[in-house]
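Contributing new records

If you add data, match the layout below exactly. Sequence lines come first and carry their own label; structure lines follow with theirs. Keep one chain per record. Anything else will be rejected by the validation script.
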Amino acid sequence: MAYEDLKAMAGTKAPKFGHFIVEFATPGIGHIMKSAGCDFVLFDLEHSGFHFETVKSAMRYFEAAQLPAIVRVPSREYHHIARAMDMGAEGLMLPMVGSAAEAREIVRSMKYHPAGGRGVALQVAHDRYRPGAVTEKLAAANRRSTLFCQIETADGVKNADEIAATEGVDALWVGHFDLSVSLGIPGQFDHPDFRNAIDRTIAACEKHKKALGRLVPTVAQGIELNAAGFDFICYSGDVWVLHDALADAMTRLREGAKAGRG
């Protein structure tokens, strides 16, 4: 299914499939992912070590490939949110959102007047350096910007309904590892408490007609979670896909060479 932009993606429960970039912010990465069939990219600043100069370059690679990008910033601090938006992030993901009040503050930081209080910088990266009327620019940026709030704490689960109901929040995104840790059951994704937390998050998105996403390590889990109500399915990440494919090839090469010598 083809989408015009990330906002359009978040407006439907049809499945969207993407990939997580934590290491390889190379010039060809957008075209490689587009050719592979990705609908979107999740570009990480929380754990990758990427800085905003890298974001500024990477957004151009994704724009060139016409691949919508979600940027996960390191924190809910204004300077992280606004700077990512200025660099051209179409979508923004925030870690560990625990309440509707936090969600509203994020919206205030990422949206221009009258929806928020983001500082104005025009004819720079986010509007592709093009001139235009100020009011039209602000309105267009507010329409385009798409917010993903991560539910990865016990408070986030408890308040998932209110977070999903918050104006300006387009989607929730489960951070499964951190959520399991917050619930006191690290890595126990089959634990009843974890399953209940997922059910509550799914219900919140269904009630308020919001999109729901998650990172998945396998194709089988992606298919299973899509059937359960997740529509943004982010399959693995650049480091792990390369590592696993290379490790498999090295193993088979060694086995084949050993068999050939026998």
